[in-house]
Specification:
The protein is of the alpha/beta class and 301 residues long. The protein has 9 helices and 11 strands. The chain has a 9-stranded mixed beta sheet with strand order 3-2-1-4-9-6-10-8-7, with helices on both faces. A hairpin with a 2-residue loop joins strand 7 and strand 8. The N and C termini lie far apart (39 Å). 39% of the residues are buried.
């Protein structure tokens, strides 16, 4: 078995609310540091040109591929990354980790991926994901909620890391190549009907063989999604057949679920205010990462 790393990078920025320490270079440095510690090279997948300081780091810690015609946008870059894995000659039991460019990782993050890879019951792995013990207040103001009928599997302790059966994660995750090949239609279906948005939560629930919506949620959507206005009702009616189709798709994995496990506490964080899960001092990790990057000459002192 082999661990593969695909890091999606984009040279531009967005309007998300960020911590003071955030930069894409710092996030990339944290990932390069973790990869080096585990002796794994990174495949840097660039959607269009990136700044020279980031490119210098990329070239030292792996190989660089620029998507033709880029920037092609979030969805097409994500599909490109998925297809790199599923159309490769990698073995089905290999693990591939897809990383977005605004995540901070601990130095042992990639070592944790290798530990998870050795456990065959783990089909998908998250280094960043909310769990009942470590859930942020912004996304879970009323506390963590499991989907209807959810029954979590026991925790897995391996090589000093703890993994808990998780409901869902983001587009930064690891997966067995074989599971990705089987579940690729789920990933594509969960991109409909939106042009830029991914239904990450529903994707994860479906490949685990669970229903993404309760009966009433086929109309209302997940909690706090429905608005009782003419526009809200029209939106709900439009989305209803897509939600029903996703629920029907989940039945195909009922007898062969591909389970997702998350590191607890998290070994990575989405660098956006409000969604950095508790359990770790992310500010201190950022400062430590910066010190490493300065020492290695990637960030000015």
């Amino acid at each position: 078995m082999t661990t593969h790393l695909i890091y999606r990078s984009y040279g531009g920025e967005n309007t998300k609310s960020r911590p003071d320490w955030f930069s894409k270079l710092l996030c990339a440095a944290s990932f390069a540091r973790a990869a080096e510690q585990a002796d794994v090279r990174v495949h840097w997948l660039d959607d269009g040109p990136v700044p020279a300081d980031r490119m210098r780091l990329f070239e030292e810690f792996g190989d660089v591929q620029t998507i033709a015609g880029g920037p092609v946008g979030m969805r097409r870059s994500y599909v490109t990354a998925l297809r790199l894995a599923i159309e490769s000659d990698w073995a089905d039991d290999d693990l591939v980790y897809f990383c977005e460019d605004d995540y901070l990782h601990t130095p042992d993050a990639v070592q944790a991926l290798r530990a998870a890879e050795a456990r065959p019951e783990i089909s998908y792995v998250a280094l960043y994901a909310a769990t009942p013990e470590y859930a942020n207040d912004l996304e879970f103001p009323e506390g963590f909620r499991h989907p209807e009928g959810w029954s979590p599997e026991p925790d897995i302790d391996t090589d000093g890391f703890r993994f808990v059966h998780a409901v869902s994660t983001t587009s930064t995750f690891g997966g067995r190549v074989g599971a990705l090949r089987a579940d690729y239609p789920i990933f594509r279906q969960a991109m409909l009907p939106f042009r830029t948005r991914f239904l990450d939560h529903e994707t994860c629930v479906i490949y685990q063989g669970r229903r993404p919506y309760s009966p009433v949620e086929h109309l209302t959507g997940p909690p706090h999604d429905f608005e009782l206005t003419p526009r809200g009702v029209a939106r709900a009616a439009f989305l209803m057949p897509f939600r029903v189709a996703l629920t029907l798709r989940s039945k195909r994995n009922l007898d062969d679920p591909h389970l997702l496990y998350a590191a607890a506490p998290n070994l990575g964080c989405h660098a956006e205010l409000g969604v950095m899960n508790p359990g770790r001092d992310w500010d201190a990790l950022a400062a430590d990462t910066r010190a490493w990057a300065v020492e290695r000459g990637f960030v000015p002192a």
